[in-house]
Each structure stands twice: as structure tokens, then as C-alpha cells.
Amino acid sequence: MKKFDCKKILAVLFVGFIIVSFSLTFCINQIEIFGGFYRGYTNTPQESSILTKIGNSFRNFDARMNNFFIFRNQSVNTYGLIQRISGRKLIDDVEPSYSVLKLNNGYLTFRGNVMIQTDGIDTSTEDGVIRLDTLCKENGIDYFFVNGLSKNTNDEKLLPEFYPYVAKNNSEYDFTGNLQKKGVSLWDAQKELDKQKIDKYELFYKTDHHWHARAGLWVSKLISYNLNEQLGYTLETKKLDISQYNIETYKQSFLGTQGKRVGQYYSDIDDFELILPKYETDLSVNFDKQGIKRGTFEEVLIHRESITPDNILNIDDTAYDAYMGGNHNIVEIHNHKVNNGKKALFVQNSFGCVVSPYLSQIFEDMVCVDIRGFNSTDNRLEDFILQVCPDVVIDI
């Protein structure tokens, strides 16, 4: 008698579920879905080849299929549950770099490094940092580089047995150490963690590649402390003590970028925290030149509507966007409760969303810019720095 194979039966049931779901989706939304073929073809530039037009047709069709798929959340959750029961640690994605890897500590990460794309100055390289540091110094502006953290790892203890491990070279290049020798003021998050004997994963969500809000506050305080120590500033670092904040916790309400790709049953669901000042705040904020809004920290920098615990697979919104409303090209903040005359230009990526709200509490003026919004031709970061003319450029 053949042995009962639960995994095979689950796989067959899942395939059957997908077939039925696809069929129903086509029947209910056939005009919208098949219209994707036509629009993908006609919206391709006329000079493009026929193969390019056909390729765009299928891409547009696939995007519409995802948007109108009637059992999308159920399918993602079912797929993730089957993978968990099967004990799989690597969940493949159509885009290989976005394949989800479950580390031995339970945290999810991407299989490969998902790089931040920018055609302009690249401060992930020594040449890029030196170039920006030189520009600032030549124009009487302080420059402070923050070497952040990635959720990816090369730790053999954390990687599943099957996953390729590359042994570290003992003569590994010291990126920040070399920059310091060349006179760059900076703070290295990993070296700080090593000094305090803190596991870097304590700063991350389990299901998302970003730092959580407590980490954002911690990073903000260490930045302010080092600006005082290294550049002689007198910023009010006590404002960034966690004891100065109220914490609201939303239990099991957040599924991050990695978690949404594998569903809510593959891994733990993250708690989400709003960390709000106890002290009085008064800010004027302008997001992307859309107009100035004045109010408290919570009124102008926090977006509670992004927290959707009843729909954590929401593809149009994420709880992470509760801070700053997510990514913006330019955010201008004036703090009416600070009178130190200091203006900071904060060069960030999406990690900065949980850092900039807190840094704004110790500068009279702060301009936050997304590095991904600049290129090397008609919209250069270097030109923007000279236009803003801040006291300090903080590059995270």
C-alpha cells in the first residue's frame, strides 16, 4: 500500500485552486484583462520592434491579471502555507533577486541584494562619498556620512544548509575606516552594534527589509550625538531619548515587502509601533511642493490610515508608510519649537522614512530628499545641495 503523501495532495489542491481562480478571474474581468494586451501594444513607441510590442502586451496583461485576480490574497496565503508545511526556506519569485529566503533566526530577506538604483552620484562607493564630501567642504558645508545596515547576511549560522556560503576574507576592505583616514566625518551602524554587542536583526522587521521605528529613533540619536562630537554641534540629543516618547503598539498588524510575497502563514506577522513625542511639537511641512501644512508631529508626519491590520496583504498601502506618508522626492520641514538656526539636508532612501521624523525634532529646518530622484545630467544632487545651502548634509 502506497504511503499517504500530504505534501503532494496539498500541491495538487493548490494547483486546482489556481486554475479555478484564473478561470473565474477571466470570466468576471475579461474586458479589463484582455484590454491589457491592446494597451500594452499600442502604448509602445511606434519605432519599437514587433517583438518589443508583443512583450509589452504580455507584461501589461500580466499586471492587469495581478490587479484583478479575485482570490489574490487567498492564493498568496495558501502558497506560503504550503511552502511552510513543506519546510522550504527559499521561495522563488519570477524576479530572482526578489526570491524570499527564510534565515535560521526566522527573519525573511531577499535572495539577492536589491540595489537602490540611481544614475547620479553613488555614495555606496568610496569615490562617491569622497566626491560629495569634497563638494561640501569647498562650499563651507559640513558633510556627514551614515553607513547603514542591510538585512542580507553572509553568516553561515543564519543561512540554510543548502544556501551557498562564501567565507569572509580576513583582509576584508574596511570601507568606513578608509573614509575616516581621508577625513570624512561618519557613523558606522554595524560597528556601533558590534561595540554594544547588539544583533543587527533587532533593528529590522521580520517580514520587511526596513528598520522598524525604534531603530529609526536609535539611529537618529546616534547621528545627532556624533554630529555634536565630531562637528562641534550642540543639538538637543535628549529629545531623541525613547523615554521622551509614547509608544502605541498594533499587535500582528504588519506584513512587510518580503512577507507580502509569501503570505501571512509562511512566517510570523510583525507588530507595528507608532512612536510619538510626549513633548509639545509644532511643525510646518511641505511634501513635494504640494503646499505647507502646519501642525503637531502626529498631524503632519504620521499617517495612521496606512495601518490596515484587517488587510495586511494590501498591495496599495503598507503600514511602513505611516511614517512620512512613505517616499517623497522632497520634504521641507520647519520646526517652530527649535531656534538653533541649523538647517540639515537629509539625503535618504526608503530607510529614512523612520529616521527623518525624529531628526526633524533637533533642527530648525530640514530638507529631506530621496537619492533615487536624482540623475547625472539635468537633475544632479550636487546642484541641489548648493541650491539648498544647508549647514550640514547627512547622507544615509
Name its key features.
11 helices; alpha/beta; 8-stranded mixed β-sheet; 396 residues; 3-stranded antiparallel β-sheet; single chain; globular; 2 domains
Q: Could you describe the 3D structure shown?
A:
The mean pLDDT is 87. The protein folds into two domains: 65 residues, no CATH class; 270 residues, no CATH class. The radius of gyration is 24 Å and the shape is globular. Helix 1 crosses helix 2 and helix 1 packs antiparallel against helix 3. It is an alpha/beta fold and 396 residues long. It contains eleven helices and 13 strands. Helices cover 35% and strands 17% of the residues. Strand 4, helix 5 and strand 5 form a beta-alpha-beta unit.
Structure summary, number of beta strands:
13
- Cα distance, first to last residue? 62 Å
**Secondary-structure element series:** HHHEEEHEHEHHEHEEEHEEHEHE
Helix content: 25-40%
Number of domains: 2
Determine the mean pLDDT: 87
Poorly predicted tracts of residues: none
Brief overview, please?
The chain has 2 domains: 6-70, no CATH class; 126-395, no CATH class. The chain has helices at 6-42, 50-68, 72-85, 126-138, 175-181, 189-196, 213-231, 257-262, 297-301, 356-359, 381-388; strands at 90-91, 100-102, 108-110, 142-147, 185-188, 245-254, 270-277, 283-287, 292-295, 330-335, 343-348, 365-370, 392-395. 35% of the residues lie in helices and 17% in strands.
